[in-house]
Amino acid sequence: RLEEFLKKEVDLELSTLPDFEERVIDVSEVEQLMNSINTIPAPCAPVINPQAPNAATGTSLRVCWGLFSDDTVECYQLCYKPVSNERHSDEQAEHMLKVKETYCTITDLLPNTQYEFWVSALNASGVSPPSERAVYVTAPSPPTIKNKKIRSCENAALVCWESSDINPVDSYTVEL
C-alpha cells in the first residue's frame, strides 16, 4: 500500500489562504534601555607621575601613573619613545606595552637618555584619551677609570676617568 500511495500525485495547495495581520512593533526604547544597562563608559585619561628619585638605572626606568576616577579599567597602554633634538623627532620609533598595574619597569634602554612616556586606560567600551606626556631620564653609565693616568703623593691623588655617555653628565661623585 505504501508503494501505491507514493506513486500518487498529491496536491498540496491550500483551499483557503491564511489571514495574517501585519504588525510593526517598535522595540527601540527597550533596546536603548537594555544597552544603557549593560554598557560602562570608556575610562578618563590617566595622570602620569613625574620621575621619582631612584627610579632609574643606566638601562631601565620605573614609570608610575594613576587614575583619579572610579572608572572600570581592564588594562593600560603605556607608550614611550626616546626624546630627540632633531627636527624629525616625531619619526622616532614608538614602543607600546599593555600593563595591568599602574606602574611598569621598562628595560633595555640607553644610559643617560631622555624618554617621553604617555599612558591610556582601556576597558570593554573603549580607550581613554592619552595622559599628558612625561619625560624620564635613565642614569648615566659608570665612567671608566684611566689606570695609567693615576698619580699620587703623600697628601693627594689624581684620578682620571672618561664617560662613554653621549649626553653630558651633570656631576660625578668620587668615593674614597
From TrEMBL:
Question: Per its UniProt record, what Gene3D superfamilies does this chain match?
Answer: Immunoglobulins
Q: Where are the transmembrane segments?
A: none
Q: Which Pfam families match?
A: fn3
According to the UniProt entry, where is the signal peptide? none
Q: Could you tell me the superkingdom of the organism this chain comes from?
A: Eukaryota
Q: Which PANTHER family match?
A: E3 UBIQUITIN-PROTEIN LIGASE TRIM36-RELATED, FIBRONECTIN TYPE III AND SPRY DOMAIN-CONTAINING PROTEIN 2
Q: What is this protein called?
A: FSD2 protein
Organism for this UniProt entry: Horornis vulcanius
